[in-house]
Design goal:
The structure is a single chain. This protein is mainly α and 222 residues long. 63% of the residues lie in helices and 4% in strands. The chain is built from eight helices and two strands, in the order αββααααααα. It has a two-stranded antiparallel ribbon. A hairpin with a 2-residue loop joins strand 1 and strand 2. Helix 5 runs antiparallel to helix 6.
């Protein structure tokens, strides 16, 4: 079903199908910045805080393999450089995220959502300049959307560990936005349109599955 969204490989169709916030938590209920679900030594933990920790983990689980694809398939040095930033940035951010999750007793996924896995599948099927263009525009669009989520959490959380994670996520996302733009391949008009008018997909397509009981935790290596 996801594959049908990417008919023809045209960038415009790809972005229409893919461009909306790329990270969601396990709950399908809207998370609240005010609803405290736990009192912790580092401050109150809200639904929004918990979902943010899950979102950061899910982002790394698809953007990290895309970075490795860019290192292998990128046809320009700028695209390969962007891939290196994705790999190293998400390896470092994921390490922090998993440590924060353990301290706050938050379960994080071992797989990206079906929608996020669709991103990876599309780029796995791309070759040459098509890969370069699709990667730069898909990643620039999703990072632009994520940027506002990070800012909101940083401004509202009362938990010091979540603030630490948001600080690092902010630096990482801004770095990735910058390296995508440096490829010279970003269509800013289309990216802005996709950032501000995202389509809606069913919850099961945008929610990462919880890990199976006893499943070893996936780690991302720099």
């Amino acid at each position: 079903m996801i594959g049908s969204l990417f008919v023809g490989g045209a960038l415009s169709l790809t972005l229409v199908a893919l461009a909306y916030p790329s990270m969601l938590g396990f709950s399908t209920v809207s998370s609240s910045a005010d609803h405290v679900i736990a009192q912790t030594p580092t401050g109150p933990l809200t639904e929004a805080d918990r979902d943010f920790v899950v979102k950061v983990r899910a982002a790394g689980l698809w953007e990290y393999p895309v970075g490795k694809l860019a290192l292998q398939k990128g046809t320009t040095q700028a695209v390969r450089t962007a891939g290196r930033h994705l790999v190293d940035g998400h390896a470092a951010l994921d390490d922090t995220d998993r440590r924060v999750a353990a301290k706050l007793n938050i379960t994080v996924p071992n797989q990206a959502s079906p929608q996020q896995q669709g991103f990876v599948a599309t780029l796995e099927g791309d070759t040459g300049k098509q890969f370069d263009s699709d990667m730069a525009n898909i990643l620039r669009t999703t990072h632009g959307q994520i940027f506002t989520t990070v800012a909101k959490i940083r401004a509202t959380t009362r938990n010091s560990l979540v603030r630490q994670l948001a600080d690092q996520a902010n630096d990482t996302v801004l770095d990735h936005i910058t390296v995508m733009e440096k490829t010279g391949l970003v269509d800013f008009d289309q990216v802005l349109f996709q950032e501000t008018t995202p389509p809606k997909l069913p919850a099961d397509q945008v929610t990462p599955p919880p890990p199976a009981p006893g499943e070893p935790q996936v780690t991302l290596t720099p």
